[in-house]
Every structure is written in C-alpha cells, then in structure tokens.
Specification:
- With 92 residues, the chain is an alpha+beta fold.
- It has one domain: Arc Repressor Mutant, subunit A (Orthogonal Bundle).
- It has a three-stranded antiparallel β-sheet with strand order 1-3-2.
- β2 and β3 form a beta hairpin.
Amino acid sequence: MTTTDTLTTAKTRERQQGRLLTYLREHKTIQPLVAWERLGIYRLAAVIHRLRKDGHDIVTEEIDVKNTFGERVRVARYRLRRPREEQMELPV
C-alpha cells in the first residue's frame, strides 16, 4: 500500500465516522443494513470499534429481525449512550 493509499483510507475512515456520528445523533440507533444502504458503511462494527477507541460511549443491543427468506436472525443495533461532549463534562 502506498502513502497515497494510506492517506485515502484514513480520510475515508474519518468521513465514515463523521457520517455515522451524525446519523446516530439524528436517528438515535443504527443497524448494519441501514449503515450500508444510507451511509455506505459496509463494516459497521469496525467503524463502531474505532469510535469507541476515540472515547465515544456506544451501546450494542442484539435484536431479532427477519431476513430475506423470512427467517428470524439476530443483528446488532447501536446507539450513543450520550453525546461525547456530555461525557467530557465533570459533575458539579
């Protein structure tokens, strides 16, 4: 991988993280299929992992949904516990 490729990948990751945080603040929760269809994020769990490493408090909940074949399957649903700015404030 070249330096240009590495920079492009880093920029893509930053944009994905920004889109995801904006979506979570506006819509409260997200699931993998929604992330792919609306945000172009194929590996949602990887983006969530990076955001957590950056200090965002993101909660995972497993939910049951039906797949294309009508079978019940479990998927992750993510939500921000609270905005990062609020997490940084100290109690008075």
